[in-house]
Design a protein that fits this description.
- By secondary structure, this protein is α/β, with parallel strands linked by helices.
- The protein is 39% helix and 17% strand.
- It has 13 helices and 14 strands.
- A six-stranded parallel β-sheet has the order 4-3-5-6-7-13, sandwiched between helices. Strands 9-8-10-11-12-14 form a six-stranded mixed β-sheet.
- Helix 4 links the parallel strand 3 and strand 4.
- The longest helix is centred in the first third of the chain and has 21 residues.
- The protein is elongated and about 90 Å long.
Length: 364
């Protein structure tokens, strides 16, 4: 008898796995006794006893017609959608984003759930979205797709959503889990490393879009906390695809001025590269802190080697962690709103020459 019960337990486990793999939901018919007996190569009597045991255990229900149906499904097979910056051919300008999106897709592929790509226009139209999203039970949403025109659809979704991107969301009415950047540790480490008070000017360069403006304000407030507000200047560039060229053309006519008493904090790695290329001599250029580390994507260094001290946003980890989080939440049915803050990393190189004299002592 114990051996027969063990056989029924083994078949029940296989049935649960099939329910998971097929993505069956509560109320779905699991198949006839005869068909299940053929599938699991056993007798109808064994299947009937196994099904009755699963009904008693609360795993299946039996309707008035004697059909067995899924009663509860604590494990759901993840069918993940991705709504965000598209994966473009290699060579595209936005190296960081494209690398992060590839990491996301690779992680979901490893988890056995290649993502369904959701276009921005599809999230704007409730009817189209209903058709495109009906087979998705989890969504990774990048900030670039979150605006007043997509909120109607997103707020009506009942599936888990994980937002990836900046720490400064513009639309707070959407409640999601989040995997976002955390700048404070890297900024504090930079303040310990760099002799900020030795500069005559500190210029914050940013792009005129929501995230660029918010990040510039965050850095300005950080410097205010260091009692450096009287040194701070703000320089904004218009939003566009040529941030590096805008920075180059702004600074190239000024290359003969001695900038050695100035710190530039650029909120874009592309602007940082443009500034470097505008100066023929590293000796007369300003010190530069770049928000973004593009070294592994750009080998044409203006000064022959990796030069820019940078705050690496750690975007590849953000996207990988988002893939793991949405998978776990869908599979387990976890409805909590989870926030994961991924710390940015300070990468120290030669573009900062005003170094805190106590830095070596503090790092030992």
């Amino acid at each position: 008898m114990a051996q027969k019960k063990s056989k029924r337990t083994e078949i029940a486990q296989k049935l649960q796995q099939d329910i998971y793999l097929k993505g069956l939901l509560p109320g779905d018919f699991i198949g006839s006794v005869r068909r299940l007996a053929m599938r699991y190569q056993t007798t109808p009597l064994t299947i009937s006893r196994m099904l009755n045991e699963m009904v008693i255990a609360g795993e299946l229900s039996k309707d008035d017609n004697g059909f067995h149906r899924v009663l509860k499904n604590p494990l759901a097979k993840p069918h993940i959608g991705y709504a965000g910056e598209p994966l473009l051919p290699s060579g595209t300008l936005d190296y960081l984003m494209q690398d992060a999106v590839r990491k996301l897709f690779n992680e979901l592929d490893k988890l056995g759930t290649p993502p369904q790509i959701i276009g921005y226009h599809e999230l704007r139209d409730p009817e189209i979205a209903q058709q495109r999203l009906k087979k998705i039970n989890g969504l990774i949403l990048h900030d670039s797709f979150l605006d007043s025109r997509t909120l109607e659809v997103l707020n009506n979704l009942t599936i888990p959503i994980v937002r990836v991107g900046e720490t400064f969301p513009k639309y707070l009415t959407l409640s999601t889990s989040e995997v976002v950047q955390f700048f404070e540790p890297a900024l504090n480490e930079f303040a310990r490393f760099c002799d900020l008070k030795s500069y005559r000017r500190i210029i914050i360069i940013y792009i005129r879009h929501w995230n660029g403006i918010q990040l510039a304000r965050k850095i300005k407030n950080f410097l205010h906390g260091k009692k450096l507000s009287d040194k701070v200047e703000m320089l904004a560039f218009p939003q566009g695809d040529s941030m590096g060229m805008l920075a180059f053309y702004h600074f190239q006519p000024l290359q003969n001025i001695d900038w050695s008493d100035t710190l530039i904090i650029s909120t874009s790695g592309y602007s940082s590269r443009g500034i470097c290329r505008a100066f023929a001599s590293a000796d007369r250029m300003p010190d530069i802190l770049s928000i973004d580390n593009l070294d592994k994507f750009d080998k044409n260094y203006p000064f022959g080697e990796p030069f820019l001290t940078a705050i690496d946003r750690n975007m590849d980890r953000i996207f990988r962690d988002a893939a793991k989080l949405i998978y776990e939440q869908v599979e387990s049915g976890d409805e909590r709103k989870i926030i994961i803050q991924v710390p940015a990393k300070l990468v120290i190189r030669k573009s900062i020459r005003h170094i805190n004299p106590n830095w070596q002592e503090k790092t030992l």
